[in-house]
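Reminder to self: tokens first, then the designed residues, so the page reads top to bottom the way the pipeline ran.
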């Protein structure tokens, strides 16, 4: 209903206007206009523009840059957008391959440069109307080659008891080639040699790299060589006692008491095979000829070939202790003599031994100061003793400590010897007489005095009897020994 109303209304308006007049001619004119437009669009081909994106820029004459000793520092691929103009039909099939954009590097020197862009089309059906940028900016740097020092670090530790030696490597320098600004940042050529837990000498090729002062790798440069040959020795450590060697003799009357070396032990270093056979070290011979007093002597070590003492920072010192000899004579009472292996039939009363034993001892001062009469023991071999006063005897003297020499003079010693049996008989004889003569009254003292006074001859006879008994005892003892 609504649509019919609008159509009716339009018809009414059309009928009331001039459009309703000459209607046929007007329709024919409209048709001719449409046909003409279609003809123009299809046959005349009007002019238009078209934008081509991301066309790569070609850099021309790069060899000239290289021949000038230059290099492009910020070298990269450059792209631009190109606007072209032409007929519609011509532009319809145009692509990026139909246009060439170039930058000619001829004639430029070191530094920042702006290179204009040039375009070229491969047919004349269109033209370049515009570029998204008219030039590209480059930085040209001078190419240099400079030798830089090689620095090789040892990383890790040897096995316990071993120590690394001096690191050696070749070459000491390596050439670095590249842009001057890059080469100048290279501080050294760096490498690392790892020795974790090793016990043997090492020799190997080590890779190296260019680094700056902070240890960062510098790119954009090339090295004359990427490896170096390095070697390092590994030695074994061993601590050995240091012993002296001496030559010559001390002066007459003096003796070398001891020699003390400082240090007493030294740590040596060498190959494992050379160190393992060592169990001690010796000094070079120390000449003590004619020495008379304690002295410090600087000594050299007698080290085997290929053995060193790397931690001996000061010379070894040998302290030679010297003492003089002295002689002392000690007089020891003969009563202190111990009689050994005496016949069981004999008896000697220690207090009856008479005389003194003179003991002459010779030794160094430190020994003599600890010896006196009380420290000397006397002894005598009594296996050959005979009853009687005895003749000169040979006494042994032994000090409490060992000495260099000792002389004993026992010429004044006399040892009285008695028979045990005779002494027992005398004791039995004397016991009854004592009982008979013992006074029993209160006036016993007077009785004794009266007897002694009134019978002097009896006293004399008693003394004679005693002498006879002693003589008989001695004779009997000699007889027993003869039997």
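Designed residues (483 positions):
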């Amino acid at each position: 209903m609504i649509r019919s109303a609008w159509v009716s209304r339009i018809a009414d308006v059309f009928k009331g206007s001039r459009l309703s007049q000459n209607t046929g001619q007007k329709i024919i004119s409209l048709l001719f206009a449409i046909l003409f437009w279609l003809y123009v669009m299809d046959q005349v081909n009007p002019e238009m523009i078209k934008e081509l994106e991301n066309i790569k820029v070609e850099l021309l004459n790069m060899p000239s840059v290289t021949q000038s000793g230059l290099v492009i520092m910020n070298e990269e691929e450059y792209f631009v957008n190109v606007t072209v103009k032409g007929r519609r039909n011509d532009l319809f099939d145009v692509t990026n391959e139909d246009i060439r954009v170039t930058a000619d590097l001829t004639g430029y020197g070191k530094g920042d440069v702006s290179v204009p862009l040039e375009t070229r089309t491969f047919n004349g059906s269109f033209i370049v109307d515009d570029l998204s940028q008219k030039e590209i900016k480059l930085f040209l740097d001078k190419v240099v080659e400079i030798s830089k020092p090689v620095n090789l670090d040892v990383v890790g530790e040897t096995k316990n008891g071993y120590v690394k030696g001096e690191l050696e490597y070749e070459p000491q320098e390596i050439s670095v080639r590249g842009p001057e600004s890059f080469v100048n940042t290279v501080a050294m050529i760096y490498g690392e040699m790892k020795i974790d837990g090793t016990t043997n000498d090492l020799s190997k090729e080590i890779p190296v790299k260019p680094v700056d002062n902070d240890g960062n790798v510098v790119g954009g440069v090339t090295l004359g060589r990427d490896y170096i040959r390095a070697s390092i020795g590994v030695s074994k450590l061993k601590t050995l006692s240091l012993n002296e060697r001496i030559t010559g003799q001390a002066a007459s009357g003096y003796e070398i008491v001891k020699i003390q070396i400082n240090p007493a032990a030294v740590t040596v270093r060498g190959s494992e095979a050379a160190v393992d056979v060592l169990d001690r070290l010796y000094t070079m011979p120390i000449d003590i000829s004619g020495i008379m007093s304690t002295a410090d002597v600087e000594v050299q070590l007698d080290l085997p070939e290929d053995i060193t003492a790397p931690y001996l920072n000061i010379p070894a010192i040998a302290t030679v202790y010297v003492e003089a000899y002295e002689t002392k004579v000690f007089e020891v009472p003969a009563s202190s003599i111990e009689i050994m292996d005496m016949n069981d039939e004999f008896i000697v009363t220690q207090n009856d031994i008479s005389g003194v034993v003179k003991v002459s001892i010779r030794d160094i001062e430190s020994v003599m100061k600890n010896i006196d009469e009380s420290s000397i023991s006397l002894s005598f071999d009594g296996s050959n003793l005979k009853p009687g006063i005895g003749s000169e005897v040979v006494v042994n003297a032994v000090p409490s400590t060992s000495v260099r020499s000792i002389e004993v003079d026992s010429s004044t010693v006399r040892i009285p010897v008695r028979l045990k049996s005779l002494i027992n008989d005398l004791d039995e004889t004397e016991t009854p007489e004592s009982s008979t003569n013992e006074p029993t009254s209160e006036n016993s003292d007077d009785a004794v005095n009266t007897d002694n006074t009134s019978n002097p001859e009896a006293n004399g006879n008693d003394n004679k009897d005693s002498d006879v008994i002693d003589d008989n005892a001695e004779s009997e003892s000699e007889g027993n020994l003869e039997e």
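The first strand starts at residue 47 and ends at 60.
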